[in-house]
Specification:
Blueprint: H1 69-86, E1 90-97, E2 101-108, E3 123-125, H2 130-143, H3 168-172, H4 185-193, H5 201-209, H6 225-239, H7 243-255, E4 276-277, E5 286-287, H8 297-300, E6 303-305, H9 306-318, H10 324-330, E7 334-335, E8 341-343, E9 348-350, E10 353-360, E11 363-370, E12 375-381, H11 392-404
Antiparallel strand pairs: 1-2, 1-12, 3-6, 4-5, 7-8, 8-9, 9-10, 10-11, 11-12
Helix pairs in contact: 1-11, 2-6, 2-7, 5-6
Length: 421
């Protein structure tokens, strides 16, 4: 199993090397992002197969007119190409750009057994996008003067390797050097043997701490879900409240997110699509809809929907819940080894698109905001099965942005794919 695949069983999907690979057939040229205004490009469309009619989104007082028919037709064709080639059951794509228009479409099926279509009002498991909420809760405590980003984790949590040297900033920025618990073979065996079992944060840390540290604090960037488990525990210790309550009251409520939640078990509000994964003992594709996400906890357990993620994309990128100084610290990125891509504090900037993606068994999401165009893109799909080693959410993001923001193509660069094994 390759350690470069940053997914929730092997490490939540983010803008990390594997999560940003493109299939050769769909790869475009690299594009720069500095100071270039995104644009909608009109071109002769390829006649598409009609997509599933979208379920009207909940009114939010910020409706945009639809994109021109020509651009919409281009997007329909591009999304359907990825759907077919990557064998994705279903996907919902949302794009909103002031002055340009909106595009909200459902493609494919939500349930292979019944053929029920995807809908825009579905809840979805958001995987690593949870990290954006956990780190926001942490940064709110920074703004309140209750903690400091350069405090060491050992100040709050005992027994952490290098705990007297690793800072909260390094944990949030994926530069701690701590082993990623979801890469541990014992953890993988336990999860695939009984994916509905609950895990505690301490169990997850135990899987990590039996491994040596990977490098010294701050020496380099390496994605690790262990970092977020520790930050979740810090939030709980400082507030004296469970993490799910802190996020609900201190993040979701002020952000106005009514259909987003941090589950405490396997609960999954209806309606939702069935999720399909090959993260099974045999590698065959199975349903993962009701698997217990407690093993992901502060790193990836949350649930949301299209409209809430649309709103959250802008809140996260513009920092409306934080002071300007703290948001500025959040947006300072470290290169992840891909041109135009960097990781900040629980957030990435890829070719100017700011946000996060997520992948856990059965589902993938991508929620990003492009400040230069005030554009938002949200992509939701009901599988995490890789296509030729590539994350399908990334393939959809590339297909959409290649058409609508050619100067800011996500992810914009196709590095050499790593060897598997």
């Amino acid at each position: 199993m390759s350690s470069t695949h940053i997914r929730l069983r092997r490490g939540c999907a983010v803008a990390a090397a594997a999560g940003l690979f493109l299939t050769p057939a769909l790869a475009g040229s690299a594009y720069g992002s500095a100071g270039i205004q995104a644009q909608i490009v009109l071109a002769a469309p390829t006649p598409p197969t009609p997509p599933t009619p979208p379920t009207p989104p909940s009114p939010d007082g910020n409706a945009f007119p639809e994109l021109t028919p020509a651009v919409a037709a281009q997007l329909d064709a591009a999304v359907q190409q990825v759907l077919r080639e990557a064998r994705v059951p279903g996907v919902t794509v949302g794009l909103w750009a002031p002055g340009k228009g909106s595009y909200v479409r459902n493609f494919g099926v939500a349930d292979k057994a019944t053929g029920a279509p995807m809908r825009t009002d579905f809840h979805i498991r958001i995987g690593s996008e949870t990290k954006t909420f956990t780190v926001t809760a942490l940064l709110e405590l920074v703004d309140q003067g209750k903690i400091g980003l350069d405090d060491t984790i050992g100040t709050y949590i005992a027994g952490v390797p290098n705990g007297d040297r690793i800072t909260l900033r390094q944990l949030a920025g994926m530069r701690s050097g701590l082993f990623n618990y979801s890469e541990d073979e014992g953890f993988n065996k336990a999860l695939t043997t009984d994916p509905k079992q609950p895990f505690t944060p301490q169990q997850l840390l135990d899987y990590s701490f039996k491994h040596p540290v990977q490098f010294g604090p701050g020496e380099k960037w390496e994605y690790s879900n262990t970092n977020l488990i520790l930050l979740g525990l810090v939030v709980e210790k400082i507030t004296g409240r469970p993490l799910h309550e802190v996020i609900a009251q201190d993040v979701l409520k002020p952000a106005g997110l009514r259909r987003t939640l941090f589950p405490t078990g396997a609960e999954f509000p209806a309606p939702h699509a069935q999720g399909y994964t090959d993260e099974s003992p045999t590698g065959e594709i199975v349903e993962a809809t009701d698997w217990n996400p407690s093993w992901a906890w502060a790193a990836g357990a949350m649930i949301s929907d299209l409209q809430d993620l649309r709103s959250w994309a802008r809140t996260l990128a513009t920092g409306t819940l934080l002071t300007p100084a703290t948001q500025a610290e959040r947006l300072k990125t470290t290169s992840i080894g891909i041109p135009g891509a960097g990781y900040g504090l629980g957030i990435f900037n890829v070719q100017g698109w700011i946000g996060h993606n997520g992948s856990l068994p059965g589902y993938e999401t991508l929620t990003v905001y492009l400040p230069q165009a005030q554009a938002t893109m949200v992509i939701l799909l009901n599988t995490d099965v890789l296509h030729e080693g590539q994350e399908p959410s990334t393939l959809f993001g590339e297909a959409v942005t290649r058409i609508v923001t050619p100067d800011h193509v996500y992810p914009g660069h196709k590095p050499t794919a790593p060897k598997q094994g």
